[in-house]
Amino acid sequence: MLLVVLSAVVANAGGPLNVWNAEQRIPYRWDVSSPVRIYTDNGPFEIVPPQYTPIPNEKADEIVAFAAKQWTDVPTSSFQAQVVGDFASVGLPDVNSAATAAQVIGVENGGGLYFIYDADAKIMQEFFGAPPNVLGIASPEWADETTGTITEGWVVINAQARWAGDDNLQNYAGVFTHEMGHSINLAHSQTNGAIAFYGDTRGPRSCATLPYSTALTVNDIETMYPFINPKPGTGSGLAQSTVDRTEDKAAISNLYPAPGYPDTHGSIAGRVLQTNGRDGITGVNVIARNLDNPYGDAVSAMSGDYVRAEAGDDGSFTLTGLTPGARYALYTDLIVNGGFPTMQPLYVPEGEEFYNGANESGDGVTDDRCQVEPITAVAGSTTTADITLNSVKGAPQFIPLAPNAYARTVSADGRVVGGAVAPGGAMRWTEEGGYEILNLTRDAEGWMSRDALTFASDTLAPNGLRVASILNLGSTWQQLPLPVAEAPAVVMGTGCNSVSSASRISADGKAVSGLVYVDTNGSLPGQTCKVRPFVWTAAGGSRLLPVPANFRSSRPNGMSDDLSTIVGWQDTLGPRLGVRWVNGQFEEFSTPALMVGEAVYVTPDGSTITGANAGPKQNPWIWTRDGGLQQLGRTGPNFTAVALSASDDGKVVGGLGGSVSQFPGDSSGNRAFLWTPELGTVDFEKFLQAQGTFFEGWILWSTVSMSADGTTHVGSGAGPRGGAGWMIKMDKVNICHAPPGNPGNAHTINVPFVGTMAEHLKHGDTIGVCTDSQ
Q1: Using one digit for the tens of pLDDT, what is the confidence trace for 86-125?
Q2: CA-CA distance, 83 to 482, in Å (whole number)?
Q3: 437-679, CATH topology level
Q4: In terms of DSSP H, where are the helices of 512-656?
Q5: Which secondary-structure segment (H or E) carries 758?
Q6: Which of 87, 131, 94 has its CA nearest to residue 109?
Q7: Helix, strand or coil for residue 587?
Q8: What topology is assigned to 189-391 in CATH?
Q9: What is the SS3 assignment for 67?
Q10: pLDDT surpasses 80 at 18
Q11: DSSP character for 127?
Q12: DSSP collapsed to 3 states, 55-83
């Protein structure tokens, strides 16, 4: 019986390793007792303007044969393939349209591998719906399900994406070889490509010194890395057209081993284990590098790559093809980019680390992630090397949200996050279930009540304009009615980019604040779309909030549950100024002695308010009923510094502290800050690092919300795979405790973050794990 084993795969977005029998770890394979039969398109290879000379079909056929020879000539592999004819020889037409593509793809044609030349990129666009700049798509398509034998596959080469001047297809040959690798069931790999394309580190990210120093060259990029640059002269296409790196040779040999393989080489096998040293973790890249030839002789595998993706506790990996007698450094490696559809590549907060032999453990204090225990490869022998991810006992836990999922609010108990998914759409996220998109309005924020059951966001009206809306979970979005504006202003229904926009939902979910666009009816020329603040409740409907006569725009940012305190901003002809509405009456925070910027957050009982840019240094600030207005410190000189969140008692504050220093990939320089009365203002990243919390590859830009007790924080940042949100759980923290009267007996203790930490700081203890010098 035949079945379809895989859908299409693009050159830069995914390469499958289809597993036929996960229990016995057997992948799908072609029968290579005789060469796999390759058929090439009838042509033409490409269609070009009259002033250009097209590459003849014969040249493209030569490159197909070249690619087949690359995979065939690996001495440790039994794979073999050869071109035996064109499509006409088996009764197929030239494939030059979506209709003719359907005669090859999705139809069983008697077996073999079919190379399609997409002469004008119309197959990419019309058949696959892919952009015209996709280089290639490939798939092993049909297999005998009783034996796991692939019987038919195809490759599509986009002729229009080759570079001008590459008339012999020498540089575009890398696309042919790469795509043929997919069609014979090879997955993507990451050994050297991420270093060349993305500046990834050559070993564990946090290790300043590595046990090897050889320079990487373009010739070291593996053929099956997810990206290829086929530009003549400066690109990688020529280098990636050949199968001469250990990584690619081992990959093809694992699928199609020659007699005696892998016993002619050394192997390393093990598991990537959770910090408990027991449970495996699937989806972590593992690399072994020869200390004397670290890029030419390197092999990688993703943990769990020969089992089903659901086997999250497997964590197994096997690296073969190692040079007998060579010494290898083994380490975990985070995937930078590209598709790995065998399983989802994981972000591991514990970070990258070297295998260090007997010292390998889950203890981040005693297990030095940069210590290397080289493994000597022995022919016919497999060395067992389990790698246990590191954590520091008692350290706050870092949890990344999915890429492009941004936190805005967190539930009172810290279990549910509300926010947005770029490029648009309110979302609800839990650690157990990931995120659920609640709407798809572009650039819409998602604000959540403290019980995580009610949401505010913007949805689109029939005329395409945005309208503030509310959602009770399990129901549908309801657009909020527009308030009635006093003369001479009228609420705008058309003519502006939006009708209204939600800016916050109350903690109890019973009120929504936002802004509405109004027309001044000609009384203020040039201001036909003024922004006015409003608040909505189910009982009272929508009503405008009062503003002074000289205002230009104003918006509320939050409200207490009883609506006695609503906070926000207004501007006249200068910067935004912090304002509040107390029992419906408008007030400014600023005084002649102290300019106060935007008020951002108010606790559910109205007792604490936080905001941005107080005083000449533009500090974050906090206001409490008992203590009045207080400026908080900054973590850097950047203009923007804002307190975005607070615990319900006002004793924990978080936000954006200002710029610190610029790092590669960090365009803003912003850093999250943490404040308590005892700590003062501290860089949140440094606070967590002192605890032993590891969030390798992340920059924490700002804390945007926290649980009622201040022990769970959520925020935004930049992660290894782009911008995203994060969560920090810190019910307890590590303190270096020096007993009174016996400072020489300092030792690390783990204490509750709320309350107990403050008591220890008062008598001289310090934040974090004790170091040798303490």
Answers
A1: 999 999 999 999 999 999 999 999 999 999 999 999 999 9
A2: 69
A3: Neuraminidase (2.120.10)
A4: none
A5: helix 756-762
A6: 87
A7: strand
A8: Immunoglobulin-like (2.60.40)
A9: helix
A10: no
A11: I
A12: CCHHHHHHHHHHHHHHHHCCCCECCCEEE
